[in-house]
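During the reporting period the student researcher (J.K.) took over the structure-prediction task from the postdoctoral fellow and processed the backlog of single-chain submissions. One of the processed entries is reproduced below for the supervisory committee.
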Amino acid sequence: VSDIFFVAYDVAESVHPGMAPDGTRPASYDWTGLVGQRNEVAVALMQADQSFVTNSALDLISEIGPVIIAAGPSELVSEGSTITASRYLGVAPDLATLTDAWHATQDNNTETVGGSVTASGYAVQGARVHILDEDMRVLTQAITGDNGLWQADVAAGTQAQVVATGRGTGVHYDLPIGAGWFSPYSAAPVRLGGLAALHGGAEPNPNAEGYGISSTLPADDNTSLVLTRPGTLKVSISDGGPAVVRVDFASGDPETEDTWLTHDRPSGAAAWLYIKDGLGEIPLEPSEYTVVVHRGARYDPIIRSVEISSGEITDLAADLEVVMMPPGIWAADPHAHASPSPDGQLPMEGRLLTHAAHGIDIHFGTDHDHIADYRVLLGPLGLHEVLASIVASEVSPPLRGHHNAYPLQEAPDQASNGGLTWWTAWTDWASTADMHDQIRVLPSDGEVLVQANHPLGSGGLLGAAGHEPNDGTIAHPEMWSPNFDAIEVLNDGRYGDYLTHYLDLINRGLNPVPVGVSDSHSHRGGVG
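J.K. obtained the following structure tokens:
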């Protein structure tokens, strides 16, 4: 008997008790949980009457993203008999609050450890304190309050150790303090509250960033953990527009100890910042850095070396000069993903910010099998003068290839806001032409265009149909349809084989519009 709890990529990361520095997990465990990437929330599944056990089949599910799995031992159930499994599902500001409550329900004999986290003599709010056993395996995790204090209960006799981290995700969006996530599926008051916070901010969650990692110390009831106070890189863009800021260590990452407890460095960089209105800041650990500021291919990038000192602000002014700006030409990216996609790794507002920062004029919201209208975010984000958005969807069945459909409109009274539920229809399709016909009648305020995505391989139309560019043959006619309007010839920098097949289609009388796309699922991924 098993429970599986999914959370979106852009929201949380998993924490597993008993996990060792090399990533191995114990054969049995009493709880498993998730923590918001910026300390927004903690969630845990906890056993009530028997320990959970490792299940290799279910563990494969964890490869798709943040997920907590609580699996009981295998049990043989005879016909007519009944078994009962009990669980606790907990939600709290941090995991230590949940494990403390769980110990109480189990009548466990515990002792309390606690202390403070400081940097340069100041209390650090929102630092993560990792409580570990004598072998450095995870016991629980606490988050410091505004006074820098923390505490947690551990089993009596445990030789606990503690280490504080405050490095942060390293990915920064130019949003007001306290801005949260937006979801097209939230209740109306939640959506309105989210939009208001994106415009004017809200009470923030405590989240230490740029503080690095403390030394590991034996835990007692007054353990003092010390982090390094960050400096601040303040970047200004001369024309007041959006920009991308990438920060790299000049001489390698200074943090090498206990990095298994922290967020990975984003794409190998120290930090990324996506500016929306000409000014942005990044908290950074004191070190020397190389900073690149750019706005896509139409502007010259700025490259600077900077030294960040603890507690100080370092200013960097960037004048992004135009290299080429063809008149009457709009830069569009008709294939990208965010949180409405099950594999999207950034929020909807983050997707719009990354596009604007890369100099994109038109965003397409092509999330897998969902219709999500990003346009409602443009005003609150202040991007309505530099970015447009087209409502779209990526219809993503296996075997027949993925296809983008646009322009669309949300249908809130339907599943997935009106997205094509191909899993209920695809067994009735005699050919891919049937699928194209269904795509063209998706909810829209105009004519629906169909785009064949990444056309080769198992997820592409030409690959599924077995298109042979040397002689123009189709090996699987039932998987083929020429009824599409556009085709990707560039996807995340890859074009060679796509271009060969596209030219063969042109030679044989078809004339789909060639498009270049990022197909980005994160803040990176060839945007622009």
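The committee noted the following: DSSP finds eight helices and 34 strands in the chain.
J.K. will present the remaining backlog at the next meeting.
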